[in-house]
Amino acid sequence: MKNYQSIRLFKNPVLEALTHVHPSVPFIFWIPVVLYFFYQGFAATSLSITLNVIFAISGVFFWSLTEYGMHRFVFHFDAKNKVAKYLVFLFHGIHHDDPQDPTRLVMPPVVSVTLAIPFYYLFKISFGPEACMPFFAGFMSGYLVYDYIHFAVHHFTPRTNWGKSTKEHHMKHHFIPKGAKWGVSTSFWDHVFGSFK
C-alpha cells in the first residue's frame, strides 16, 4: 500500500487525506459502536432476546437492500450537470477509474458516519428508541460485512465457490457499460430487481 500511486482528488492535503483509509479503520472504528448498540438492545431495553435477534437480523437484511439501492441509484447516479457529475465521481467514480487502489476500497469514517447518523434517526423514528438499538447494530454489521467483502474481492483470490461467484459478480459490474450487478455483499437483490444479467 505504501508504494501505490493513487489518483489525487484534492489539492488540499487535509481533504485528500480524508479520501484515503487503511482497511482496518472501519473495523476499529465501528466494532465498538456495533457492540454498544447490541449491548443497549439486550441490557438497557425491555425487548426480549428473541425480539433483539429479530431486529438485528432485520437490520442486516435492510442493509443489503440499502447497499443495493445506494450503489445503483446514488453511486451510479446519471448526473447531467458538471457539479453533480463531479460529486458522483468523488464518491464512486474514482473507484471505477482506479478499482485496485487499496486506500479507497473501504469507506472512510467521515463518509460512513455522515451516512450512519441520518439512518440511525430514521430507525429511531420508525421503530422507537428500544427496537432501534438492535436494528441499527444489525444494519452497521451488514455495512462492515459489505466493506470487507468489497475489499476482499478486489485484493484476494477466493478459494470457496461462494467467494469465487461473489468476486465474479462484482468484477463483471466493473465492466458492464450500462450498469448491472449492483449488489456487492450479495447478488440477492440483483435477482429480485432483474439486474443480475
**Secondary-structure-derived class:** mainly alpha
Beta-strand fraction estimate: under 5%
- As for the number of domains, it is 1
Rough shape? Answer: globular
Low-confidence stretches: none
- Number of helical stretches of at least 4 residues: 7
The largest sheet is:
none
Radius of gyration: 18 Å
* Average of pLDDT: 91
- The count of DSSP E runs of length 2 or more, i.e. the number of strands, is 0
- The arrangement of helices and strands along the chain is HHHHHHH
Instruction: State the separation between the terminal residues, measured CA to CA.
Output: 34 Å
Question: Can you put this structure into words, describing what you see?
Answer:
This protein is an all-alpha fold. It has one domain. The chain contains seven helices and no strands. The two termini are 34 Å apart.
Describe the structure using short key phrases.
197 residues
Short structural summary:
The chain is an all-alpha fold. The chain contains seven helices and no strands.
List the helices and strands and how they pair.
Layout: H1 13-18, H2 25-43, H3 49-74, H4 82-97, H5 109-155, H6 161-174, H7 188-192
Helix pairs in contact: 2-5, 3-5, 5-6
